[in-house]
Amino acid sequence: MGKVTKAKKKPLPPGRPRAFDPDRALNAALRVFWEKGYDGASLSDLTAAMGINKPSLYATFGDKQELFRKVVERYVQTQTPFMQEALEDPSARNGIRRVLNGAADSVTHPLNPHGCLLVQGALACGGETDGIKRDLAEKRSGSENLLRNRLLRAQTGGELPPEADPEALSRFYSTVLRGMSVEASGGATRKDLQSVIDLAMNAWPA
Amino acid sequence: MGKVTKAKKKPLPPGRPRAFDPDRALNAALRVFWEKGYDGASLSDLTAAMGINKPSLYATFGDKQELFRKVVERYVQTQTPFMQEALEDPSARNGIRRVLNGAADSVTHPLNPHGCLLVQGALACGGETDGIKRDLAEKRSGSENLLRNRLLRAQTGGELPPEADPEALSRFYSTVLRGMSVEASGGATRKDLQSVIDLAMNAWPA
DNA sequence: TTATTTTTGTACCAATCGGTACGAAACACA
DNA sequence: TGTGTTTCGTACCGATTGGTACAAAAATAA
User: Fold this and answer.
1) Axis crossing angle, helix B166-185 with helix B92-107, rounded to the nearest 10
2) Alpha helical stretches, state H, chain B
3) A87 touches B: beta carbon within 8 Å
4) A192 CB-near residues (< 8 Å, 6+ apart)
5) B137 to chain A nearest CA, in Å?
6) Which of B38, B175, B183, B195 to mutate to test the interface with A (most CBs of A within 10 A)?
7) Could you report the per-residue pLDDT of B113-148, keeping only the tens digit for each?
8) Which of A89, A164, B41, B168 is the most buried (most CB within 10 A)?
9) Percentage of chain A lying above the pLDDT 70 cut
10) Residue pair B71/B113 in contact by the 8 Å Cβ criterion
11) Cα(A138)–Cα(A128) distance, rounded to whole angstroms?
């Protein structure tokens, strides 16, 4: 019988096996980029945190930009699914509030760097990082799209009045999300953000 | 008679006169830091934009961190006074709206880098930049204080109902300001931000 | 003129940057 | 025991980083 304690079968490939877990290494890289940003994170910072050396990094993840993209992908996959979930709430208004609450939890989580990687990863940076900046802006607009679609659905469903503007509303709540990230990065507490959320919900159409 | 075309008297100090205008040079440095952030701006970027060489930079402005602080000071002095002015509006509500409008103008100004230096100058960065980060967070809280004081005044003056929370309101509008900066930095237009502002004003206590 | 003072440009510093060449090491297979 | 294959660690690459030493240049004062 197979080893039941190990989830994956192991038809070991030829060659020397790698001595680190790429998944853990990627998570370590995520933390570094998260708290230092693309420019502020050096390869030495990264390899030190990941517990590997540069050739291993390059062989496994590519150059710094590729690594960053993989990190962003990991971030999106692990830190944002709560949004889709929240937006499944039968009430769009509740859904949005739950998105804001979840984001507030995330950007002030005591075990993670404060703020959102998609915001502080590369807001302003130098050199050939335009692609990075565009990537992050795209990912950010992803969550805005989520909100907009939910709001459009709410309008056709009657929860939002016909004169409401789902486009503007999704942009507004996205802006509040970005703002909360900046505030958290600057030291705002979860409680601080709660009062922001409560007020932001006042903008909901009467 | 004195030279009437020159504003300042000129009791030239001894030594070789400097060949550049420190004011213009500082403005050039401001632009570089504004669009590349602290980490992304190299001394080569700075000296190239300022039109001077490194020894002149060091003699006049100190090292990179000192230069950045002077740049931030310049930024605050030139880009934020519109806030005090706007908050002198007899209506606090109008004042806040004018602050948001002015900020939207500023962060999308076609001749300047998009976004706010106090936000994107050093949100996440590496090395010994903790002081820089704290400085910027402090400057940001400056505008929040402005809003809070105005709102407190509005409450004692009766424009805001007693049950309103000036603390929370100022934090909310500050958060919207930071969010608009991020959005502008990511490509949002002035028009986009206007719809955000209109919705943000809905949060004003009934 | 000479002396003094300050700025300028060049040339340079050690350290670090992102990125790689290369041989030893560790596995499967024969 | 090889042999093939892949990763590992070290040592290194040229370029760039932030920061300076130094002497020529440009001004005033004597």
Assistant:
1) 20
2) 22-40, 43-50, 54-61, 64-79, 81-87, 92-107, 117-120, 130-157, 166-185, 190-200
3) no
4) A183, B171
5) 5
6) B175
7) 999 999 999 999 988 899 999 999 999 999 999 999
8) B41
9) 95
10) no
11) 17
Instruction: Render pLDDT for A99-157 as a digit per residue (tens, 0 to 9).
Output: 999 999 999 999 999 999 999 999 999 888 999 999 999 999 999 999 999 999 999 99
Q: What is the least distance, in Å, from the CA of B91 to any CA of chain A?
A: 20
CB contact under 8 A, B126 and A40: yes
Q: What is the DSSP string of B110-130?
A: TTS-SS-HHHHSSSS--SS-H
Closest Cα to residue A40, out of B136, B63, B41? B41
From the CA of B66, how many Å to the C1' of D14?
31
Contacts 24+ apart (CB under 8 A), A76-83: A76/A118, A76/A139, A76/A142, A79/A106, A79/A117, A80/A142, A80/A143, A82/A106, A83/A143, A83/A146
B49 Cβ within 7 A of any nucleic strand D atom: no
The whole-number pLDDT of residue B14 equals 85
Residues 6 or more apart whose Cβ sits within 8 Å of residue B126? A36, A37, A39, A40, A41, A42, A45, B39
Minimum distance, in Å, between the CA of residue A73 and any CA atom of chain B: 19
As a rounded value in angstroms, the CA-to-C1' distance for A17 and C28 is 11
Only one residue has tokens 């590519």, namely A62
- The residue among B12 and A157 whose pLDDT is bigger is A157
Candidates B175, B192, B200; nearest CB to A203: B200
Residues 6+ apart with CB under 8 A from B68: B33, B38, B121, B132
Question: Could you give the percent of chain B with pLDDT greater than 70?
Answer: 95
B23-76: pLDDT as tens digits: 999 999 999 999 999 999 999 999 999 999 999 999 999 999 999 999 999 999
| Residues in contact with strand C, defined as Cβ under 7 Å from any of its atoms | A 12, 14-17, 41-45, 53-55, 58, 63-65; B 13-20, 52-56, 59-60
For the entire predicted model, the pTM comes to 0.94
* CA A40/CA A103 separation, integer angstroms: 24
